[in-house]
Amino acid sequence: MEDLRVLGEFYFSQLLNKPIRDAKGHRVGRLLDMAIRWDSVSPHVTGIRYTKGAHDLIPIKLVDSWDHNGMRLNTAFNPKLTCPIHEDETFIGKWLLDKQIIDLEGSRIVRVNDISLSWVAREGHNYIVLVAVDIGVRGLFRRLGAEFLLSRLDNKFVGCQFIKPLENRTSALQLTREKEQLRQLHPADIADLIEDMDYKQRAAFLDSLDSQQAIDALTEMELDVQVEVITQMDEERASDILEEMPPDEAADILSELSSEKSEELLSLMESDDAEDVRELMQYEEDTAGSLMTTEFIGLPIWLTAEQAINELRRLAPEAETIYYLYVVDEQETLEGVLSLRELIIASPETTLKDLMHTKVVKISPYDDHEKVADTIHKYGLLAVPVVDDQDHILGIITVDDVLELLMPDRPRVEIYSTLIARRRQAKGGHSE
Amino acid sequence: MNLKARFALFFAIMGPGMVTAFADNDAGGIATYAAAGAKYGYSLIFTMLISTVLLAIAQEISARTGAVTGRGLSDLIRENFGVKWAFFAMSVLLIANLGTTTSEFSGIATSFEIFGVNKYLSVPIMAFIIWWLVIKTDYAKMEKILLFLCLTFFSYVISGIMVKPPWPQVFVESITPTLLGTPAFLLMVVGVIGTTITPWGQFYVQSSVVDKGITAQDYRYTRWDVLIGTFFTGFIAFFIIVSTAATLFANNIPIETAKDAALALKPLAGEYASLLFGFGLLGASMLAAFVLPLSTAYAVCEAFGFEHGISKSYREAPVFFSLYTILIVLGAAIVLWPGLSLYHVMLTTQVVNGALLPPILIFMVLIASKKSIMGEYVNSTFFNIIAWTFTLILVLLSLLLLLSTLFPELATNAFRSIGL
After folding, report:
1. CB–CB of B70 and A258 under 8 A?
2. Same domain, yes or no, for A307 and A248?
3. Is residue A363 part of a domain?
4. What is the value of ipTM here, to two decimals?
């Protein structure tokens, strides 16, 4: 890498449709597109598409130089010198120019106005490397031949390491880099991105996420978008995702669908999960029951603190909150509650019976939303248990479910985004 | 799926076609149809019926493309034809839509004049209200109220029957193609086509199909939505022409202002005719004035990749909000220009729309016939032949109009020589 020299920088649009001449000055064709290979190193141009008919390329090593009049080859041209496009190569113009991509750094969807390329020399070889895509207004005007109007405006680039095209070039080319960067995004940001996509892009994009991420992102979305995404998915995938979502969210989505569709999806889900969701779906929209989730931590009353912590390790991944632990008997009757802090600082042998608070604030599934909000607010709780007439615990309602009620519109996602942005700044550009 | 479930699904999906259909019979639409009836009697019914069939075809293509691709028309133009063509298409759309917005504001001004409110008062206030409501409130509710106001146009249907037009003659003229070689007649033909099939309508129906999240699977319901909507556009237009022809044309009353078009409602509403007309005009103009600037701003921003959406703030999406605001302000300002005939503004913008339609249609048909984009929903050959013939005719008509406007005598002579 030591002797890497940048010989020049240029834009794809400046070369597009320019004539190609060979060493003798014969016109070979026009530059229609460039094939690039994007392997572990930086993406570099491997060939030039020069004629409409054939898909054969002029290998990049035949290119001698270029200027604003076009490209010049270093030998006499002969069709035998061309080669077909490789499986791991793709045309950048067709694939990127004018298309939408995800800017992973800014986590938003943008449109590519131009492509910035560099001509570099390394170890005696010349390469054309893809540097960045231009998403700014200046790039737009350059394409329209009116860049001079905006020559004082800065170009807006997204470095090629930060782009994720919405159209996959070839299925084999899902870069590990992309996957890694997607994993860095906050689910709320992914949710925003998905909201901006059309339904085909959504399908492709969701496939490129791992399933936990897809579920987290879906959980962050507004209900109407959730419904849209689920209806647009094929049933198998949709039911898989619903299974893994918190049952209260799944129930909300399913109750928005037509009864046929929701029945169909429920029947595809695993019976346990489907049962939970069905149970939640039976509550009217404005009751506490419709807010609650069944994924709480319920611990048997006879456990010792040490056993409880072990049990907690097993149950925690599924639960919506682990800060409150509910103590129940064999019949699932709510006997008491204790906080995570109380459990951790307790001596290992104490039983939960001695640790728990027996005066528990609880509500009925038929209470209205206002009662829930009031209760949570009055006692300063993170979650409140929902019990039936016989004190059997049915589920819990967490404070964020109530917050969502109080701020029904967009803010939820925006609050998250600004938090993330701050955290990123504080840690120098990296989240988490 | 049983019948009930199918109907439920249809009503959930219904909307884009209906709204476009009613917004199609906007201020300019009423003015043009009324003028056509008053000036040329029943002879333009043929043109109107044909353009309604073509409207159905055009709307069907747009709605289908929207459902299959999940994208707006400007987005597709940008991705498939590049930035220069997108720029061209957007310029066309901007000019056409600025004109149409202006004509909506003339409609608003006219209806308020009927209620006795000066346009220098009503237009700025309504412009501000529209601007404010779209940004600050839930537009969907407003849409329902405005659609309800549009129902008053069915009074033309009743009026058209009450005046007892000579039905046999109406029928014969409806199926007889008529083409007079005068520039004024050509102007009216292009105007009628231009008001029935609008560039904005195509963009709008496609993006609202996309917004509703309709996919290729649900598309067959959307097709009905579009077809039923188109039927109503044509149905009402037909009766506007019939009732104005039977009252105004028959008695040689020329239309000078849009208020004169209300005269055709006299048989039904008597002295309340102009009031009834005023409400209908207000509903239609407002509906379109809401939809137009917004959908234009969406389309342009989508094509060039600017941030857009009403849920965004001005700082996030400056281009979007500026464009939206400029369209409303300019549209309202042109209407307030002193000494301008509101009625002529409405008519002229329909002709401009008609002349600017062909480029947009060409893009639409090209996209809908690409198998790589549309897959199994690609245009059939038969469909393409109709679409291209129609586009060609419209291009020819626009050229003829241009020629006859620039060289009126030449055109008249040319027509005479071919026996018209």
Report:
1. no
2. no
3. yes
4. 0.71
Q: Which of A14, A101, A111 would you mutate first to test chain B, the one with the most B CBs within 10 A?
A: A111
- Residue B323: CB atoms within 10 A of its CB come to 22
Q: Which domains does chain B have, with CATH numbers?
A: 17-417 (1.20.1740.10)
Instruction: Assess A167–B contact: CB distance below 8 Å, yes or no.
Output: no
CB contact under 8 A, B213 and A231: yes
B204 or A175: which leads in pLDDT: B204
Residues A199-215: tens digit of each pLDDT: 777 877 887 777 788 88
Q: Does B83 touch chain A (CB under 8 A)?
A: yes
CA proximity to A139, closest of A117, A115, A161, A158: A115
**Whether B79 contacts chain A with CB within 8 A:** yes
Closest chain B residue to the Cα of A201, Cα to Cα: B70
- The total number of structural domains in chain A stands at 3
What is the three-class DSSP state of A354?
helix
Residue among B4, B75, B83 with most chain A CBs within 10 A, to mutate: B83
* A135 reaches B (C-beta below 8 A): yes
Within B212-306, residue ranges assigned H as helices are 219-244, 258-261, 266-269, 273-304
Task: Report the predicted TM-score, pTM, of the whole model to 2 decimal places.
Answer: 0.74
Residue A429 within a domain: no
Question: Is A228 near chain B, with CB under 8 Å?
Answer: yes
**Residue B82: closest CA among chain A residues belongs to which residue?**
A98
The per-residue DSSP string of A37-93 comes to: E-SSS--EEEEEE--SS---EEEGGGEEEEETTEEEESS---GGG-BPPPTTEEEHH
Domain range for A116: 5-165
Q: Identify whether the C-beta of residue B200 lies closer than 8 Å to the C-beta of residue B62.
A: no
- Are B327 and B167 spatial neighbours (Cβ–Cβ below 8 Å)? no
Residues A319 and A399 in one domain: yes
More confident residue, B266 or B103: B103
Chain A, nearest residue to B88 by Cα: A144
Domain at A250, CATH number: 1.25.60.10
